[in-house]
Amino acid sequence: MSRQEHSDLPPVHEAWLPREHPMHRPRHGKRQLAALACAVLFFTAPVVSWVFGARAEQLENRPLAAFPSITDGWGFFTGLNTWATDNLPFRKDAVQSVGALSQGVFGEPPRLAGGSHTSPVGAGQVDAKPPIDENVFPAVIEGKNGWLYLGHDVSYRCVPKRTLDQVIAGLRRWRAVVEASGRKFQLVIAPDKSTVYPENMPDDYAGKDCSTQARNEFWRRVPDATGAVDLRDQLRAVAARNQRPIYHDIDTHWTHEGGITMVYQLAERLQPGVTSSWKVLPSRRYPHSADIPDLLGQDRTVPIQAYSLAPDGGSADNTQFKPSDFHQPLHLESGAKPGMITQPVRMVGDSFTQFASPYLAATFANITIVHPDTVAVDPVAAGKLLAEGEIVTFELSERFVAGGRYPMLDPAVADQVGAILAAYPVR
Questions:
Q1: What does DSSP assign to residue 112?
Q2: Average of per-residue pLDDT across 310-335
């Protein structure tokens, strides 16, 4: 007698058995088809909508995810989800709808991008548990007194892309290649709002332990190891003198006063005493669209106090307000005056420099600013740009440095730029 005749299993697939058979199991074909249709719609919607003129909006403080490369292997498939999510048209309207529904029905803001309040394993800790999933962290951390914090302040520290040793090595490599070409080099780390104002963070939040440990280690090691300008004390001193916070309560960035503080510190390190003649006075006030509420589906603004700056102490304001994200280099130039840095300066800076650029224009006679991501995308063009300067200055955000998130931290990028700088040395 054959093996099949002794088997208790039916000779056909269970879906083909009569419905009254106890082992009958339908294929659920309609559900599978619906799921497949939804998946196809999700991944093709960005492309189809783009053809008809719809464009995705950037909601977070980072560029929209790029379409994954087929050379990424399995990373091509895992990267599709992030790309499709970022590039969905009307995403901002959807986020706002979710926020309104959550507030109206449940009386609480939506938990976007995770929201777990369980503290995960500390960064770098040896543990049998799987690596931390970055999605367990909320996009927005609701603090005390109505303060909002960007979730990346925590998640990037807890889930770094590079070790702190690698970050330090990358920054030191940049200093080495710039100074080897005869140029001066200055590095400024813009502290996270959660670093300067930790007292308004909630008492408990996802990643509290690992992010606090990483932050303390970062500030203990990085300034000494890289020569970075540590602005924390100066920022707190300016805030105390003016009797108001130097970071916005619902925006992740510092105020114009923070930008001016950075410009003062840079200028003094390049030319001690140069700021003694500077005259800074309040000028216009204007509303600024806060970036963090956007992630909660809210349109909120913060009042911005801008300033005039006369480097020679006179009455003529020398600032220039030219909005830019620096992905296309921004060149600022004005006639040299007493109290100005007259050597050509080339700067790598991100969104924190946006609040400093008017005052850089007022005090640096010839300066061009480019975004860190642009440097990594085209090191050759970046090298040619930086070679135009006799001084090279970096402003980098703490969360991106601590998390190893800047692609330009790869020493290979510094080496490519360094080769061009070496070909055009400053004597």
A1: -
A2: 96
